[in-house]
């Protein structure tokens, strides 16, 4: 049987279609505040407490009635009437409205003097200065940071509802074996779903990796139906191309509909977007870098549309060490090794291909080349995205003669480039 050639759809068009086709799942989970970092709030969170609950001392000293200290100075200290000794954080007794610091007090038991006049509210934290009962702590859709944890606990919150999404990850292929086994001739160790789970988990998804399914349409149909039933999003690894054992698109079409099969994206061209029971099913190519690109450029943007926060890399400008040749009909992603040369960054393109994972290991950044760009010449300044911390970029072992400037401007999530 001869398979039809894939009709490639532009990546931007596919993203827009996908983001509009799949509304956010109505799913949340309650988690302890102490373990909520990186999760996203479902509803606004309001304080059940007023903090501080009463006026408290901001300094060590004596609580006083401020009007009784009028006129006090070094030459004319004023005798305090019934002062109340307080330490920082102590409640201010009713009837007192200021604190005189211990440094400004002289005398002894029964006869305390102040050499400094106090104004109303001086050195006092008033009740509710930090927050009042009912005040907003965090809005809905807020990514919880470590600094938010202390505030939530301090204001009486111990648990909260956060957005949740369940993602199923289904590896396929008769040649694929589990990690830990030694591959024989023609066999490969399954890793795509492990990478996807780690990446999507960082965005807050709860991921389930299913057992490997061999190239059998009946078994694949059962596995996809189960994955759709148990999750909000299903990713199927491998079987998305046009080979004689690539059944993913056909099974998705039998169970639901194939919205897209083939995207003008390199790597990742054979990717599939399907819909089964109203839920998205994404078919990832089996080659590792193509699978990673599919997760980064399709699955993560969908999670972001659903209110999650994807771990995108830092952007910076770097100068290309070699010319990059690209197909103007595609969105292309080129992995780079980036080094520092003084106050500049130098980006060296790595060999391209969808299979070798060592390319990703050696890279610390990548370049997105939008369609219509063609070649980007050596020496051009481009906007790149880091795959690790900027602090780990090493100094270049040798300096390069500055090349003519060819500036490339980045706009939003894409990178419109100028040919030089």
From TrEMBL:
GO molecular function: molybdopterin molybdotransferase activity
InterPro entries linked to this entry: MoaB/Mog-like_dom_sf (IPR036425), MoaB/Mog_dom (IPR001453), MoCF_biosynth_CS (IPR008284), MoeA-like (IPR038987), MoeA_C_domain_IV (IPR005111), MoeA_C_domain_IV_sf (IPR036688), MoeA_linker/N (IPR005110), MoeA_linker/N_sf (IPR036135)
The protein's annotated pathway: Cofactor biosynthesis; molybdopterin biosynthesis
MoaB/Mog domain location: 168-306
A Pfam family that the UniProt record links to this protein: MoCF_biosynth
PROSITE patterns registered for this protein in UniProt: MOCF_BIOSYNTHESIS_2
Protein known as: Molybdopterin biosynthesis protein
Source species: Methanoculleus bourgensis (strain ATCC 43281 / DSM 3045 / OCM 15 / MS2)
């Amino acid at each position: 049987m001869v398979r039809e050639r894939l009709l490639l759809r532009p990546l931007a068009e596919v993203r827009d279609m996908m983001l509009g086709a799949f509304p956010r799942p109505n799913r949340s989970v309650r988690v302890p505040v102490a373990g909520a970092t990186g999760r996203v709030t479902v509803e606004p969170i309001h304080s059940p407490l007023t903090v501080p609950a009463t006026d408290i001392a901001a300094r060590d000293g004596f609580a006083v009635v401020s009007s009784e200290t009028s006129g006090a100075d070094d030459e004319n200290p004023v005798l305090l009437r019934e002062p109340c000794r307080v330490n920082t954080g102590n409640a201010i007794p009713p009837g007192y409205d200021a604190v005189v610091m211990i440094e400004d007090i002289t005398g002894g038991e029964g006869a305390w003097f102040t050499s400094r006049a106090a104004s109303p509210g001086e050195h006092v934290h008033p009740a509710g200065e930090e927050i009042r009962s009912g005040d907003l702590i965090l809005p809905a859709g807020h990514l919880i940071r470590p600094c938010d944890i202390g505030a939530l606990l301090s204001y009486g919150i111990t648990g909260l509802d956060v957005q949740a999404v369940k993602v199923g990850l289904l590896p396929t292929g008769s040649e694929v074996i589990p990690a830990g086994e030694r591959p024989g001739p023609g066999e490969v160790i399954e890793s795509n779903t492990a990478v996807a789970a780690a990446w999507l988990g960082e965005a807050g998804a709860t991921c389930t990796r299913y057992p490997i399914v061999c190239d059998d349409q009946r078994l694949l149909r059962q596995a996809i139906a189960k994955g759709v039933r148990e999750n909000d999003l299903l990713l199927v690894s491998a079987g998305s191309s046009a080979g004689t054992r690539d059944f993913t698109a056909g099974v998705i079409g039998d169970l639901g509909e194939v919205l897209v099969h083939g995207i003008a994206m390199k790597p990742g061209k054979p990717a599939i977007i399907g819909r089964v029971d109203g839920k998205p099913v994404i078919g990832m190519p089996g080659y590792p870098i193509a699978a990673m690109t599919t997760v980064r450029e399709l699955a993560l943007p969908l999670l972001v549309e659903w209110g999650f926060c994807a771990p995108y890399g830092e952007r910076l400008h770097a100068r290309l060490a070699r010319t990059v040749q690209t197909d103007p009909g595609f969105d292309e992603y080129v992995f780079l090794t980036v080094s520092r040369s003084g106050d500049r960054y130098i980006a060296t393109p790595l060999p391209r291909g969808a299979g070798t994972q060592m390319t990703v290991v050696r890279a610390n950044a990548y370049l997105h080349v939008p369609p219509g760009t063609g070649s980007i010449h050596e020496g051009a300044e481009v906007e790149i995205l880091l795959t690790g911390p900027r602090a780990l970029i090493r100094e270049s072992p040798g300096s390069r003669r500055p090349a003519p400037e060819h500036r490339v401007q980045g706009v939003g999530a894409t990178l419109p480039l100028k040919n030089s």
